[in-house]
Amino acid sequence: MFVIIFVMILGAAGGYLYLAQKLDNQRKQILVLSKQNEVLKQNIPKGSRTYGSISIRYSNPTYTQGVTKENCKIYIAPLDDSPIILKIERPTSVNVLFKGDVLNSTWYEISIPIKSSTNSKGWIKDSEILFNTSTAAIENSNG
Predict the structure, then answer these.
(1) What is the widest separation between alpha-carbon atoms in the chain?
(2) Residue 95 pLDDT more than 80?
(3) What pLDDT score does 48 carry?
(4) CB burial string 10-35: b at 16+ within 10 A, e below
(5) DSSP letter string over 23-40?
(6) CA distances, 24 to each of 28, 33, 104 (Å)
(7) CB atoms < 10 A from the CB of 128, how many?
(8) Residues sharing a CB contact under 8 Å with residue 117, sequence separation 6 or more, in sequence order
(9) pTM
(10) Alpha carbon of 131 to those of 19, 45, 89: distances in Å?
(11) Cβ(93)–Cβ(113) under 8 Å?
C-alpha cells in the first residue's frame, strides 16, 4: 500500500515538473515575441498614414494595354505606402484591367503576361505607365 502511494506521489510530482517546465518555456517565448514585436513597431516609418475608410472609384480604362516605364513598382493596392509586390526594371507590356481614382490619384490595375500567376497582377501609378494613343481610337471603336 505504501508503495502505491509513493508511486502516485512520484507520478504527480513528475507531472507537475513537466507542466511547470512547459509553462516556463511558454513564458520565455512570449517575452522573445514581445521584444521582436517592439523592434518591428520601431521600424514602422513615423510618417505612415492610417486610413479610416478608402473609396476607390473604378472606371473602364481608355486603353487596354500599356507599357511600364523603367524601374517602376507594382503595388498590392492603389496607395503610395502599400506593399510593393514587384519591381520592373525594363519597359514591359501590360494589360490594363481597371482604372481607379483613390485619394486624388489615378491608378491602373494591371496584369503582366507571365507564365506564373503569382504576383502577376497589381496596381501602378498613372505616371508609371505609357499608352499608345494611336491604338486608342481602334480600341474604343471596337469596345
Answers:
(1) 99
(2) yes
(3) 61
(4) eeeeeeeeeeeeeeeeeeeeeeeeee
(5) HHHHHHHHHHHHHHHHHH
(6) 6, 14, 53
(7) 19
(8) none
(9) 0.60
(10) 66, 34, 18
(11) yes
